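Protocol step 4 of 5: obtain the predicted structure for the target chain.
Materials: sequence only (see below). No template structures provided, no constraints applied. The aim of this step is simply to have a reference model before the mutagenesis design in step 5. Sequence pasted as it appears in the construct record:
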Amino acid sequence: MSEPFIEMDEARFNPIPSLITLGNAFCGFASIVYAIVSYARGEPLPPVCIWLLLGAMVFDTLDGLAARMLNATSLHGAQLDSLADVVSFGLAPAVTIFVFISRNCPGASPPAVVLIWSVSLFYLACTMWRLARYNVMDIRGEKTEGCFMGLPSPAAASMIYSAGLFLPKVDMGAHLFFSFLLGYAFLTGLLMISSVPYPHVRRCVSGEPRILSFVFICVVFGSIAIFRLKALVIWAYIYFLIAPLAELLVRKRAGRPVREFLFSAWGKNPFSRA
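Step 4 output (structure tokens):
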């Protein structure tokens, strides 16, 4: 989500940001196709899926940047951006969850198949729920600068794809593997709709002092250049875990209820239609 909700001015409509947004949706659609084809052929999830996810993330960043540079922000563009995010960061990972678990757990019993369907649909629902909450908070001007409420959907999608690429290499029993995959996907979806504050990436690269931000950027890009996908997965997991762990630590030190840390801000009811 990159574009603010403002009234659309037809006189200054510029198609470039919207075309970039459609690139985001195309990457998500292509990822779905590759995942289904690999499943039909009995092959593991192809690495191209995670590269398509990265492409969707790039397009998702560039569309808002292009809209601001061209002074072409609009309500239409914001809605299109949200729909593209549902495809790339909601539907595509949900299909990947279904395909990946079904592929690695052949001969699943009917109750197990129902569980696979349920977790896949739960993940998709969490993504849509989170994006709707973001839109409502954006319209009302309730967004918190510098952080997101809940795990951002692109980060959640990266967790799903990284599991699809690297978990098959882990040696564990079939039943444990099945249970772990279901729990992993469920937890990822749950963190998306939680109130755990996740820092915006801009805070990590533009903080003070500047020298530390520069060193951080060099370390991240240097590790990616050397270790490629492995480095991307490691940084994704660091981002995935550090926010809830930090929130738990803060709550414990402040004497606040630890059990409620996932949904402590839901009392504000950002979904109210009143």
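Step 4 remarks: The longest strand covers residues 147-149. Residues 1-11, 265-274 have pLDDT under 50 and may be disordered.
Proceed to step 5.
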